[in-house]
């Protein structure tokens, strides 16, 4: 954008073509009041508070909608403007029930702030008090239309960023109000519970049902209770959404999206609300089993018991009889120390993350194409969804597992006219939005993808002869018979993928839980055949379960890899053994999802405040073991079968980093103090390691990060700043030069 020059209040300023006058004013520190403007949303000029005088005319204009122009001269302050703004505020106060003493947002209300700023101590107009009904039908959000100033922020963010368009205007005149789905109660509407409307609301018209008056107490109780924002990262899934954790009196009272973090600035139900809910009885001191009862004890006794029992099993049955499973919702620092203690302290290679299989499946596919030593991430980032013109969602329901990714898909469909194809045996939250939704029989995804690839090869050519020959048996009729997808749907799918310029294939656990790397390899081959792959990545995005699923794999919480995604070699094993002071065991085939209780004598399960899938089933398997340690925040069926239970902090009570699916390392910052008796996981692991014969200690979590950076150089800069992407730089490779091959699924069932 070219520079332009304009004059504001007699002062010449530079601006960029395309900016609004309001943006220019704020860029140069010139104050203008607003109620309807919100950065990143479209401007509508609804509140009329940002009006300015344009010199040479007798007109006023809303600065939020007025384009900056070369030579433009405006005034932002004058007696007439002040009088008009005061009149507008008085009208707003008189029109609805803005009785501040009983409003949950008093002290955090933009309308109230402007009233103080402009000295509104009385109203010249009659109060109208329209009869508008309060809506408390939603689990988390309340709507009080009598406090609404009709700024449209909620309407715009719901449409423009969340892509749902639940909210819009209803009625006319004094009865006009924001309404979900043209009259439905919010709790019965299409609302996805992201809470974005609540965060941008300038008044108390939309507020949190469960914490609103906690926020009120925070703003009304003086400096001691004033809300303090802590910039952090959501621990809810692998997307790494940035948050502002609002704290008062050492308690989390609200979680906001960090609107200035450079992403979409939205959260989901889990990120904004569910992380604040208590998941059960809190564990605040170690527990050791005596007979059928778990009894409280001190930390020294508990850790000594763990070290003694693990040591006994190692002596009697060997280190291979001990295993460790960690939740990838833990921080990078804790995950690294966990695998270090298990490998060097216990001497076992049986280490895995709860979702470790998912990433191993993806990596096996990539290594099959690019070679076994390639460590680089070859999938696209979440941000790339905002450029896509076709989404193919296969084996995933991001509306349920990764709602912020689903919002990116909806934005593309509604605002960029992107196409959406859903491939899933079940109906998902995106099915009704899709241009094409196909429901293949379970386990036939590979056949369907090869059928699409055959259509692409026939249309484009250029594929290797061996691949072309293999694909010839995937006739539309054969694929339809195998998958249950009609030949017409198959043709539509192939045509849409061929026509797209920037498609993205998005897959989830519906693919990875099949434990078949060939499925992802087929997707990769499909992108190569279509010519959509770039030198460094396939246009594919795998949705991972937890905040640091990628970090767990990067830092060695995997039975096949050392920290740094390194394969086990004598040289690398010796390097880590030298750093840790103990030998490094060889890799194993241990799998957190499928281990045999008959071959494992002891298991250390570190889950923190994570909630595991199929807890009851896992508890039954743990009950068969000789010795079980569970380190958790809340009592669950898993802790009830443990021999030793160690307390753990919540996500809000600790610091560290997460590595998201985009490889970006983001900070988790401690917001509140853990209960007395709860130690940090890194500190517990350090003490346990010492009890198992490891030397050294850490004064804080930063020292753990320093050790990671020393042993995994790719992490050094990212951990030092907490704001960098990790790049595993391999020998030069080009994804597009991969050997084009695809598995033959039909051959497994005898062909067609």
Key words describing this protein structure:
752 residues, Alpha-Beta Plaits, Rossmann fold, 4 domains, 16% strand
If helices are DSSP runs of H or I spanning 4 or more residues, what is the number of helices?
Answer: 25
- Beta strand count: 28
Largest sheet, strands/sense/barrel: 7 strands, mixed
CATH architectural arrangement of the largest domain = 3-Layer(aba) Sandwich
Low-confidence stretches: none
Q: Give the class-level CATH name of the largest domain.
A: Alpha Beta
Mean pLDDT: 93
Oligomer: single chain
> How is the CATH topology of the largest domain named?
Rossmann fold
Secondary-structure content class = alpha/beta
Task: Quickly count the domains.
Answer: 4
- The strands making up the biggest β-sheet line up spatially as 14-13-26-25-24-15-16
Q: What general outline do the C-alpha atoms trace?
A: globular
Beta-strand portion reads 15-25%
Structural summary, described in words:
The chain is an alpha/beta fold and 752 residues long. The chain has four domains: 3-77, Roll (Ubiquitin-like (UB roll)); 91-276, Alpha-Beta Plaits; 287-355 and 548-721, Rossmann fold (3-Layer(aba) Sandwich); 360-542, Dimethylsulfoxide Reductase, domain 2. The protein is built from 25 helices and 28 strands. The strands form eight sheets. The protein has a seven-stranded mixed beta sheet with strand order 14-13-26-25-24-15-16. It starts with a strand and ends in a 31-residue tail after the last helix. The mean pLDDT is 93.
């Amino acid at each position: 954008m070219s520079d332009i020059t304009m004059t504001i209040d007699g002062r010449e300023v530079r601006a960029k073509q395309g900016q609004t006058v309001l943006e220019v004013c704020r860029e140069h520190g010139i104050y203008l009041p607003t109620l309807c403007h919100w950065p990143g949303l479209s401007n509508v000029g609804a509140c009329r508070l940002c009006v300015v005088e344009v010199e040479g005319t007798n007109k006023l204009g809303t600065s939020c909608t007025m384009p900056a122009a070369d030579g433009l001269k405006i005034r932002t302050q004058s007696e007439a403007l002040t009088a008009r703004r005061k009149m507008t505020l008085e009208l707003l106060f008189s029109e609805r029930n803005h009785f501040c003493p009983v409003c949950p947002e008093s002290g955090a209300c933009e309308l109230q702030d402007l009233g103080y700023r402009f000295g509104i101590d009385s109203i010249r107009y009659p109060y109208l008090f329209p009869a508008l009904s309060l809506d408390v039908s939603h689990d988390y959000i309340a709507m009080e239309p009598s406090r609404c100033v009709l700024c449209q922020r909620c309407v715009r963010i719901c449409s423009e960023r969340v892509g749902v368009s639940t909210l819009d205007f209803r009625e006319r005149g004094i009865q006009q109000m924001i309404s979900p789905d043209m009259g439905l109660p919010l709790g019965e509407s299409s609302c996805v519970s992201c809470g974005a409307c609540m965060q941008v609301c300038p008044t108390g018209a939309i507020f949190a049902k469960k914490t609103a008056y906690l926020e009120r107490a925070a703003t009304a109780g003086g400096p001691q209770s004033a809300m303090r924002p802590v910039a952090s990262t959501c621990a809810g899934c692998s997307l790494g959404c940035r948050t502002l954790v609002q704290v008062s009196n050492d308690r989390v009272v609200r979680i906001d999206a960090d609107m200035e973090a450079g992403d979409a600035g939205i959260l989901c139900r889990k990120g904004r609300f569910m992380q604040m809910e208590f998941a059960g009885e809190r564990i605040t001191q170690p527990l050791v089993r005596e007979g059928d009862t778990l009894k409280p004890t001190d930390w020294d006794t508990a850790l000594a018991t763990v070290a003694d029992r693990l040591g006994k099993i190692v002596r009697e049955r060997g280190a291979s009889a001990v295993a460790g499973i960690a939740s990838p919702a833990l921080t990078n620092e804790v995950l690294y120390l966990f695998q270090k203690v298990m490998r060097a302290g216990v001497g076992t290679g049986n280490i895995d993350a709860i979702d470790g299989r998912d990433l191993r499946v993806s990596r096996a596919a990539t290594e099959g194409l690019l070679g076994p030593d390639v460590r680089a991430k070859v999938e696209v980032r979440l941000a790339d969804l905002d450029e896509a013109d076709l989404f193919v969602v296969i084996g995933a329901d991001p509306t349920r597992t990764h709602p912020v990714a689903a919002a990116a898909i909806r934005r593309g469909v509604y605002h960029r006219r992107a196409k959406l194809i859903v491939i899933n045996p079940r109906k998902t939250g995106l099915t009704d939005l899709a241009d094409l939704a196909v429901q293949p029989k379970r386990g036939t995804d590979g056949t369907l993808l090869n059928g699409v690839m055959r259509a692409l090869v026939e249309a484009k050519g250029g594929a290797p002869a061996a691949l072309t020959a293999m694909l010839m048996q995937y006739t539309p009729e054969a694929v339809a018979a195998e998958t249950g997808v009609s030949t017409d749907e198959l043709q539509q799918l192939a045509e849409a993928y061929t026509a797209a310029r920037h498609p993205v294939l998005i897959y989830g656990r519906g693919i990875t839980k099949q434990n078949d790397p060939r499925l992802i390899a087929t997707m990769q081959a499909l992108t190569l055949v279509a010519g959509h792959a770039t030198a460094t990545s396939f246009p594919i995005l795998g949705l991972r379960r937890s905040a640091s699923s990628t970090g767990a794999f990067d830092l060695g919480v995997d039975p096949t890899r050392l920290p740094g995604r390194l394969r086990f070699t004598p040289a690398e094993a010796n390097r880590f053994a030298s750093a840790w002071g103990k030998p490094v065991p060889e890799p194993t085939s241990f799998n957190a999802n499928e281990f045999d209780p008959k071959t494992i004598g002891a298991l250390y399960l570190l889950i923190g405040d994570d909630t595991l899938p199929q807890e009851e089933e896992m508890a039954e398997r743990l009950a068969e073991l000789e010795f079980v340690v569970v380190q958790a925040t809340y009592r669950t069926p898993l802790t009830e079968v443990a021999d030793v239970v160690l307390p753990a902090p919540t996500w809000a009570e600790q610091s560290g980093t997460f590595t998201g699916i985009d490889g970006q390392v983001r900070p988790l910052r401690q917001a509140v103090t853990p209960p007395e008796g709860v130690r940090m996981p890194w500190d517990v692991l350090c003490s346990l390691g010492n009890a198992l014969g490891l030397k050294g200690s850490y004064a804080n979590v930063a020292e753990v990060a320093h050790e990671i950076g020393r042993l995994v150089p790719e992490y050094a800069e990212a951990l030092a700043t907490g704001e960098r992407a990790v790049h595993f730089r391999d020998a030069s490779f080009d994804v597009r030069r991969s050997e084009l091959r695809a598995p033959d699924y039909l051959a497994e069932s005898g062909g067609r």
